[in-house]
Structure to design on (291 residues):
């Protein structure tokens, strides 16, 4: 799965919008580090611009549209993930979540900071993913947005740049785009974000009513997939599975507390769950605080 920090390939899209407001729950487990640099709106704006550019490219190629029954099923799964995501703080509750489906064989899944999720139905079908595994793919990408990983990545990048001059967000991305050595320095933080999204995605999927243990076979099916080339952003599927299995007891405990109907409504809060989730997702957060 391509993360939000990688360049997006050309894709065939179909948008389905979930914009209805929803009240956030007290069980907000998956929230960004409050000490990140820049602002959420800066990244949302960049995401909107990137999304519009992508749509323009696809329109020019005449490759928009997916109306099969399979795609309808993917949208239904996404709606359940979004229902759970909206309980994760006020920002998540008001985000205009949008699913973008492509049939392009060179795409898998990725996310835009403004709330759009891109997924290839070809990728899902070629790997024979079950409903629970599709839910995990989508929950992983939604978690990138909930945790504001693009913002976290830029915060770490800013910390590595000279402090004598004030740097804008554009300065940070220019440095990443044109300095391979600098981008290589950031690669470990990119990978940390993917591991964190795996862990958060397992929890979010559980909150949406998907059995955590049934989501994990996804990694076995991803064996042989590229992890990012010169700038690897993903660990091997085996490493990702190992880390996700460490989160499994917590995810199953959360799954047991939810109705299991995809409503995103919990039977009761548990401070220990929130603490354990914070511990599981601490490496990247520690890095952003060393800026």
């Amino acid at each position: 799965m391509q993360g939000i920090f990688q360049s997006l390939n050309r894709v065939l899209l179909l948008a389905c919008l979930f914009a209805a407001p929803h009240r956030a729950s007290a069980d907000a487990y998956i929230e960004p580090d409050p000490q990140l640099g820049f602002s959420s709106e800066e990244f949302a704006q960049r995401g909107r611009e990137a999304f519009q550019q992508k749509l323009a490219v696809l329109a020019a190629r005449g490759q928009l549209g997916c109306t099969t029954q399979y795609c309808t099923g993917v949208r239904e799964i996404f709606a359940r993930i979004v229902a759970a995501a909206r309980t994760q703080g006020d920002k998540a509750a008001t985000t205009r979540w949008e699913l973008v489906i492509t049939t392009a064989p060179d795409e898998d899944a990725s996310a835009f900071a403004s709330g759009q999720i891109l997924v290839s139905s070809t990728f899902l079908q070629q790997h024979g993913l079950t409903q629970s595994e599709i839910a995990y793919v989508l929950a992983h990408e939604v978690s990138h947005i909930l945790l504001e990983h693009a913002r976290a990545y830029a915060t770490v990048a800013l910390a590595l740049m000279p402090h004598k001059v004030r740097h804008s967000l554009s300065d940070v991305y220019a440095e990443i785009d044109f300095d391979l050595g600098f981008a290589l320095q950031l690669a470990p933080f990119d990978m940390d974000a993917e591991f964190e999204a795996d862990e958060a995605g397992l929890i979010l999927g559980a909150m949406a009513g998907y059995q955590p243990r049934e989501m994990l076979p996804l990694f076995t099916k991803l064996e042989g997939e590229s992890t990012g080339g010169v700038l690897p952003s993903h660990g091997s599927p085996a490493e990702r599975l190992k880390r996700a299995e460490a989160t499994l007891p917590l995810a199953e405990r959360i799954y047991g507390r939810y109705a299991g109907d995809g409503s995103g409504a919990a039977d009761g809060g548990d401070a220990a769950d929130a603490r354990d989730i914070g511990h599981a997702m601490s490496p990247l957060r520690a890095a952003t605080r060393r800026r």
User: Anything to note?
Assistant: The two ends are 28 Å apart (CA to CA). The longest strand covers residues 97-102.
